[in-house]
Amino acid sequence: MRKLLNTLFVTQPDTYLSLDGDNIVILQDDVKKRIPLHNLESIITFGHTGASPALMGYCVDKNISITFLSSSGRFRARVIGKSRGNVILRKTQYRKSDDEKESTKIARNFIIGKVFNQKWMLERATRDYPMRIDIEKFKEISGHLSEIIKEIRVCDDLERLRGLEGQAANSYYKVFNQMILQQKEDFYFHSRSRRPPLDNVNAMLSFAYTLLANDTAAALESVGLDAYVGFMHRDRPGRISLALDLMEELRGIYADKFVLTLINKRIFKKDDFVKKENGVILMTDDSRKKFLAAWQNKKTEKITHPYLGEKIQWGLVPYAQSLLLARYLRGDLDEYPPFLWK
Description:
- The chain is of the alpha/beta class.
- The protein is built from 9 helices and 13 strands.
- It has helices at about 55-60, 85-100, 100-130, 135-155, 160-175, 200-220, 240-265, 285-300, 315-330, and strands at about 1-5, 5-10, 15-20, 25-30, 30-35, 40-45, 50, 65-70, 75-80, 275, 280-285, 300-305, 310-315.
């Protein structure tokens, strides 16, 4: 259970939510907790949480949304009253998405977060594994990423921004293979192959990115934003463009780092994959279950959010960033603060 930016997150499984006066009652294993509702804007629940009709009716009257997510973070449903705030929020989102200059202003902060966090990963590797990597190469690329960040900060053209993001990605991937420290004969990275993945590492990265995109889309929907209307990723039928935008800053520090940990700690081995006749590499059914279990465990780890200064679980970072993006669009913040991990 966690309050964050006036949102209550109920992360424990098998809880029941009910109403007592002006308080929400959280019941789990005969243990009750009461929290005043008057200062809440929304409630987000994970897992098989139930909620009483009385609580839902109260929240509808007070314009407090209740969002139900699966235990893995997939969006299920949202109970909300009059949608005045969300209509205004989404109309603002659509207007800014249609304006390329405004889109660039928001998108460049997503990409600053992405490149900053990739740079941090390289610097952390030079500190932790100085005898196992090419220090000079890592420092050279880290310096290059710093220069790209400077260019991104003043970029006012969306196509130019995409080019800078591509330059940064190419530089980062040049040394990604060196961060694989174990099982080098079975786990190696030469380049990104997406559809389809052609090696074990790319198969893991693709699965991690899919999970992160789902988590981010659920987070955006839970705060009233449209996950399909982005700023850097433009509209395409069926594509969760805004989720792809928002997850950029978490690709390296969350998904890539997660995959590297599974390999370097030998949690995943070559037997977790099968190779099809056309060269496509897939994870086995059992390895996907193992991957999902590890992903869920990762989401429970506690961190201090670099902008908010609050302790939250890793799994709540997409929700925190979604809330911050919504606040920027509402005019409560001067600009969207990216997730800059240190």
